[in-house]
Amino acid sequence: MAIRLIATDMDGTLLNDDKKFNTERMQQLLKQMQAQDIRFVAASGNQRAKLESYFEPVGADQVTYISDNGAVVTSQDTIIAEQALSREQVQAVLEWNAKHFSVQNNLILISGVNGAYVSNHATPELMKMLHFFFHNLYQVEKFSDIEDDILRVSLIWEQDADVNPHIELLKTEFEGEMHVTGSGFGMVDILAPNVNKRTGLEALAKKWHLTPAEMVAIGDNANDLEMLNYVGHPFVMPNAEPFMHEAISETALADNNHDGVLDTIEAILKGDLA
User: How many angstroms separate the CA atoms of 255 and 21, rounded?
Assistant: First the structure.
């Protein structure tokens, strides 16, 4: 069966460790995908504005976006799917975090439709770092003052912190009420129930009349697993953790620092893979 959609994660997957990718080569591959009637999807925990900035050099409107780990799906400036958390759900996460951690232990970041929000205690150095990932970033006195639809709550520890125990605690606390996933780099995301990158692909499949067998997905982390298990042709990055290779048997042709996603897409377009 012909491939009609290729989806890729960004951090640790398409992006190298300097948060870049080969734009000239990507532009050529996008032209080839369009010629073969294949949709290209960026599926990421990043907000849509950040994703679009990555693809500006190759034409941001040529890409479909599954942003905020599946909470928003956008194509050609049209929102195809959106799932927000309720105020009660956000408050429950904030209360859970306050019970288990002090403000010095981790940082709370709230991602909404119109921007991202952190508390006023965030340092200027931290704000500078966060601005790289969140273009519309605001500091607030109280999270309850935010007037926005909240897509996810992110709890952020040190980049090399082991967040798996926190993930398990959160899953135990909110099982069935919210979706909890690790996003790498010391971050844990809490989303509305049954929201992940797979549900984003399901929304696109419904809109474009696709089947999972016609889809390719490439990823490297736990928040990619639902997406990878959904598509007919999943690839895990060589640089992924061992548990990812145990879950997904097929491996991309190179790691994120050596154009692994682009090599894999090129091979698919030539008919050598998938």
Answer: 12
Q: Write out pLDDT tens, residues 133-184.
A: 888 999 999 998 899 999 999 998 887 788 899 999 999 999 899 999 887 7
DSSP the chain: ----EEEE-IIIIIS-TTS---HHHHHHHHHHHHHTT-EEEEE-SS-HHHHHHHHGGG-GGGSEEEEGGGTEEEETTEEEEE-PPPHHHHHHHHHHHHHH--TTT-EEEEEESS-EEEETTS-HHHHHHHHHH-SSEEEES-GGG--S-EEEEEEE--TT---HHHHHHHHHHHTTTSEEEEEETTEEEEESTT-SHHHHHHHHHHHHT--GGGEEEEE-SGGGHHHHHHSSEEEE-TTS-HHHHHH---B-SS-GGGTHHHHHHHHHHHTS--
Please provide residue 246's backbone torsions phi and psi, each rounded to the nearest 5 degrees: -70, -30
Q: How many CB atoms lie within 10 A of CB 86?
A: 12
Q: Which amino acid is at 26?
A: M
Examine the pLDDT at 185 and tell me if it is beyond 90. no
Compute the distance between CA of residue 68 and CA of residue 8 in angstroms, rounded to an integer.
14
Instruction: Give me 140's structure tokens.
Output: 């607030």
Closest Cα partner for 174 from 146, 157, 150, 194? 194
What are the DSSP calls for 105-148, one per residue?
T-EEEEEESS-EEEETTS-HHHHHHHHHH-SSEEEES-GGG--S
Is residue 155 within 8 A of residue 106, CB to CB? The reply is yes
Band (pLDDT 50/70/90 cuts) for residue 78 is: very high
